Structures are given as structure tokens and as C-alpha cells.
């Protein structure tokens, strides 16, 4: 299969290690990965702020860069969900729909498409998993605790394949971290308090690392951890799954 690697702008600018780990991990699993060099922002920040009518250029460029791939894979659930639900082009509506249908979040692609059952990775640390809202409630990467149904977690199942890694059990498995994209700007105090509560849960369980499938949420919690002087680190799940 031929896969287009979609790297969100904030990952490209602030956490390139997550993108590199995604590329290396996919290649280790035998995937032919191509990185379209002209890609840029998917338009989610504008859409979240009520300006989706200004994302036409982002939509057009995304379609130009990613049409023709068997799959499009990204290490960001929120950006994937935005593309899946909002990518459109009035001049090429069917092509836009086709491209949007090919976009996958990394952990979902590994479990549902590649059907990975083992990994040659090792990470000897206690790890807490943050289930981001976009991934959990939009992409169904994990179950919601309020539902009376069998529990599952695609990120968790992959992390359980990593040698010497210990997953910690959180008190509130699917609580929002408060980032919410532009929400953390317009509702700074609420966002900060939610983030502190989310971080505190991981700290109570003795986590050495906090991981997840959305670097934006991890970035929010990383800022809180640094301001608290904590030694706990954040790491995108791709970097753990790619570790040796």
C-alpha cells in the first residue's frame, strides 16, 4: 500500500519527533510512506473559531497534496476528525469526499488496517494514557466510561505490546484535559484548571510519562507540568511504539 503522511502544522513546528517516529514506525511495518512537501495547515483552528468559510485554500491544498493515496495517516486525532468531517471543495465535491474517506489516525490505522499484533519495541517506564476527546468521541479510539458496554482502547492495546512498559490505571480514564484548540485561548482559566486536574490524576498514579494520540493535548499538559516543576514528561504514542 502507498500511504501519504499528513503532519499537522503544530507537530511540524513544535514536535517533529512525533512525525519522524510515525514515519519510522510505518516503514518498519512494511508501509510505503510518502510525505507531500507542500502540505500545510488543515484549517482546523479557523474552523474551530467559527471561520470555516475561510478554509477554502486549506481544503484545496490538502486535496492537491493527498489525492491518489491508498491511505492518508496522521499522528493527530483532532486534525484527522476535522478532515473527515469538514473537508470539502465546491468544484470537486466527490474528490474531496474520496480524499476525506482515506484519512486515518495512526493508532486506528495500526489496529484496524494493518491489524498489528506485536511490536519489537521496549519502553521500561510507567505510562499514563490520555484519551483525547476528538479521538475518543469522534474517532472512537477508545470506549467511554459512561457507557454500559465492553471497554476498549486502541492506543492501550498497542502500548500493551511494548516490552517492559507499565500502564497506570487512572481514576478518570476519559476526562478532558481542557485544551480544546482555541478554547484554551478564549477560556484560559477554565482550560488551565481542567489541565491541572488531568495532570494530577496521572501524578497520583505514579506515571513517569503521559502519552496519547494527540500532541496538542500533550502540549497543554506539558506546559502545566513544566510550570509545576514536575519531572514527568509527555511523549506521543508513536515515539513509544517506535522505541527500542
Automatic annotation (TrEMBL):
It comes from the Bacteria. GO terms for cellular component: cytosol. Residues 3-84, 127-221 form the Cysteine-rich domain. It holds the Pfam family CCG. One of its GO terms (molecular function) is oxidoreductase activity. InterPro entries: Cys_rich_dom. PANTHER family: LACTATE UTILIZATION PROTEIN A, UNCHARACTERIZED PROTEIN YKGE. This is (Fe-S)-binding protein. It comes from Mucilaginibacter aquatilis.
Amino acid at each position: 500500500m502507498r500511504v501519504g503522511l499528513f503532519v499537522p502544522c503544530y507537530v511540524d513546528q513544535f514536535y517533529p519527533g512525533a512525525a519522524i517516529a510515525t514515519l519510522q514506525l510505518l516503514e518498519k511495518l512494511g508501509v510505503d510512506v510518502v510525505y507531500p512537501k507542500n502540505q500545510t495547515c488543515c484549517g482546523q483552528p479557523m474552523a474551530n473559531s467559527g471561520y470555516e468559510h475561510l478554509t477554502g485554500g486549506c481544503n484545496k491544498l490538502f486535496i492537491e497534496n493527498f489525492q491518489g493515496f491508498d491511505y492518508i495517516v496522521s499522528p493527530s486525532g483532532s486534525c484527522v476528525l476535522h478532515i473527515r468531517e469538514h473537508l470539502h471543495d465546491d468544484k470537486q465535491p466527490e474528490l474531496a469526499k474520496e480524499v476525506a474517506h482515506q484519512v486515518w489516525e495512526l493508532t486506528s490505522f495500526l489496529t484496524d488496517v494493518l491489524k498489528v499484533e506485536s511490536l519489537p519495541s521496549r519502553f521500561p517506564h510507567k505510562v499514563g494514557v490520555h484519551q483525547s476527546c476528538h479521538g475518543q468521541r469522534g474517532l472512537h479510539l477508545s470506549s467511554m466510561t459512561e457507557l454500559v458496554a465492553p471497554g476498549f482502547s486502541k492506543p492501550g492495546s498497542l502500548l500493551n505490546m511494548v516490552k517492559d512498559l507499565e500502564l497506570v490505571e487512572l481514576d478518570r480514564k476519559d476526562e478532558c484535559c481542557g485544551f480544546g484548540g482555541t478554547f484554551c485561548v478564549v477560556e484560559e482559566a477554565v482550560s488551565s484548571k481542567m489541565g491541572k486536574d488531568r495532570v494530577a490524576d496521572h501524578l497520583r498514579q505514579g506515571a513517569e510519562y503521559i502519552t496519547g494520540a494527540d500532541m496538542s493535548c500533550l502540549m497543554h499538559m506539558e506546559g502545566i507540568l513544566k510550570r509545576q516543576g514536575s519531572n514527568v514528561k509527555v511523549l506521543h504514542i508513536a515515539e513509544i511504539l517506535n522505541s527500542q
